[in-house]
Each structure stands twice: as structure tokens, then as C-alpha cells.
Amino acid sequence: MVACSQLCQLPCYGGVLPIAESVGSGSRRLELTSLVTRLSLQNDATANQVLCLQREAYQVEAELIGYDRIPPLIETLSELQARPEIFAGIWHDAKVVAAIAYDQIDTQTICICRLMVHPTHFRKGLASTLLHFVENAHPTMTRWLVATGSNNPPALKLYQSFGYHIIGETEVAPNVFVTQLMKHINHR
Predict the structure, then answer these.
(1) Measuring CA to CA, which residue among 94, 154, 104 is closest to residue 134?
(2) What would the pLDDT profile of 49-63 be if each residue is shown by its tens digit?
(3) What global pTM score does this model have?
(4) Which of 66, 113, 130, 183 is deepest in the core (most CB within 10 A)?
(5) Residue 142 falls in which region: left (phi positive, over 0), alpha (psi -120 to 50) or beta
(6) pLDDT digits (tens, 9 = 90+) for 68-111
(7) Where residue 57 sits, what CATH number does that domain have?
(8) What are the residues whose beta carbons fall under 8 Å from the beta carbon of 34, sequence distance 6 or more?
(9) Angle, to 10 degrees, between the axis of helix 126-137 and the axis of helix 153-161?
(10) What is the structure's pLDDT at 188?
């Protein structure tokens, strides 16, 4: 089996949409142009990069919430490639350093299924860039849903800064809770 660190070295490119605004600030600023790309998980190289990214990113959440069985941490490559959601990502130095997966669950609702940033790129605005990207790609949607670990203050703060409100909490394992959030947009 090839190690995750080796898989993440594989170059892969897709249909690229440049982001006009720069992300981050000060010394944390991502100096090179960030690119948001729709990611095809049928491309093995891309899927391997996303698999590596989600393992790195969700390991941080696992430590925050005290639970290491988060589905993206135990998912196989074939399971990831079978996911029905739309994936988009940000590239830096020919690597996927941040990604979002979402699904349109009805004519008015988008569910953010995954949002991940490589730990070396935390606090550079990449998660916000991806959320803006999805919202701009679906301007007529009126309801947005997302869930995150209840003991993940950075994720909760991010979603609340985008107008999401807590609508519930579910215990997914003993003493492990997931918070559900929703945002309504009135397009009148």
C-alpha cells in the first residue's frame, strides 16, 4: 500500500476557476494565486489527494471532539470515490489544500457535507473562500445546512459568521455530539 504522504505528491489538475480575491492576511497570507476547482473523484490522483487531505484535516477535529471514528478518517478510497456530493477544492503548489463537498437536496436546499483545510493552511481564509464559492455558485438557494462536532469551536464560529444558526445537537457516540446548523436566505 502506498503511504498517504506519497499519494499527496501526485500532481493532478482540473477545470480551474481563479479566485480574484486573495486569502489570508499578514504572514499567514497565501502568496500564490488560489484556485477553486471542481474536483473529479473519478480521477484517482485527485481522489487520493482529497483522501489525504481529509485524513489530515479531520484528525484535528477528532482531537478537538475526542472521537477518532469520524467517517472521513476511516473512509477508503473507493468509498470516497462513490460519494454522490459535488467536490470543489483549492490548489496550492499542485496539491489540494482545502476542499468542500456539498449536495443539493431539494430545489431550495444545499447541504454542506464536508469542509476541510490542511492544517498547514489553517487561518488563511480557505474555508471561507470555499463557502463563498458554493454560495455564489447557487445564488437562488434559500436554505443551507451543515453539521460539525459540537466541541469544534473554530468550525462553529466559522459557520455562525456566515449566518448559520444552531438548530439541534445529536449524540453520535457516547459523549460525542454533532451540532446541526442552518441558514435561511430570503431572496425577495
Answers:
(1) 104
(2) 999 999 999 999 999
(3) 0.82
(4) 130
(5) alpha
(6) 999 999 999 999 999 999 999 998 888 999 999 999 999 999 99
(7) 3.40.630.30
(8) 19, 22, 23, 90, 91, 92, 126, 129
(9) 40
(10) 66
User: How are strands ordered across the β-sheet holding 176-184?
Assistant: 16-18, 35-39, 86-92, 95-106, 109-117, 143-149, 176-184, 165-173
Structural domain count, the chain? 1
Query: With contact defined as beta carbons under 8 Å apart, do 69 and 173 qualify?
Result: yes
pLDDT average, residue stretch 31-42:
73
- In this structure, the number of other CB atoms found within 10 A of the CB of residue 98 comes to 27
Give the pLDDT score at 54. Answer: 96
Mean pLDDT for the chain overall: 84
Domain residues for 139? Answer: 4-184
Q: What does the DSSP assignment read for the chain?
A: ---HHHHTT------EEE-SS--S-GGG---SPPEEEEE-TTSHHHHHHHHHHHHHHHHHHHHHHT-S--HHHH--HHHHHT--SEEEEEEETTEEEEEEEEEEEETTEEEEEEEEE-GGGTTSSHHHHHHHHHHHH-TT--EEEEEEETT-HHHHHHHHHTT-EEEEEEEEETTEEEEEEEEE----
Q: Are 126 and 23 in contact (CB under 8 A)?
A: yes
